[in-house]
Amino acid sequence: MFLTINNLHKHFNTKSGNLVVLKDINMGIQRGEFICAVGASGSGKSTLLRQIAGLDQPTSGEVKIDNQTVNGPGPDRGMVFQHYTLFPWMSVQENAEFGLKLQGLSKKERREKASTYLDVVGLSRFAKSLPNELSGGMKQRVAIARALASEPKVLLMDEPFGALDVHTKESMHQFMLELWERTGLTVFMITHDVEEAVFLSNRIYALGARPGTVRREMRIELPERSQQIKRNSTFHDYRDELMELMRGHGQEAMIAA
Description:
Layout: E1 3-14, E2 17-29, E3 34-38, H1 45-53, E4 60-65, E5 68-69, E6 77-80, H2 92-102, H3 107-120, H4 136-149, E7 154-158, H5 166-183, E8 187-191, H6 194-200, E9 203-208, E10 213-219, H7 233-256
Parallel strand pairs: 3-8, 3-9, 6-7, 7-8
Antiparallel strand pairs: 1-2, 1-4, 4-5, 9-10
């Protein structure tokens, strides 16, 4: 496995006592897979992503990427958040170069790499624009280009399309599939949107809540990946199974609380 999560637990000490957010999480991801972790509020999705990103450390267990234990942030992981996190005073080009500048690359190297990935996401002609001149979908493409410019081993996505309107979200879904197929990226994305997860991923990890645990691993096999597939009975079966699973465990969490 390329990315492995082994017996991961995460607890927080609160005024009310020990809060268990993640319990006994085990996942294995092959190089080049597009994986989604789906869960309702309280399932620890964002906490899980922080462990993989190295922004926080597990209470016990470990995360490994390419056989290396994750002990902190690193350029082998690119992050894309729900909110675009672009610097409003910087041009698109400068935003795309930002991570490379932190890595100490020369101005020439930064410009060449960032330009390459702005071309990949279809925004070369907007390189001199400021973020406030872009649509929501275009801003997210800049954020993706910035993450890709560091050529990470894994692209981590934290509900990246949650702030977009329905039409823009659908366009971004198609864009992500094309980008993934074109680059062979390994993608790990968290979302609460079941349809989004079914449409995009090879496999889905369904998380239960309070504490977050892996309730089910589901392999997604669809005959095609276009908007029309959402009318297909196979797509509906996957969606309904996940929705039922999330509803059931949501009710369990409410009773436990």
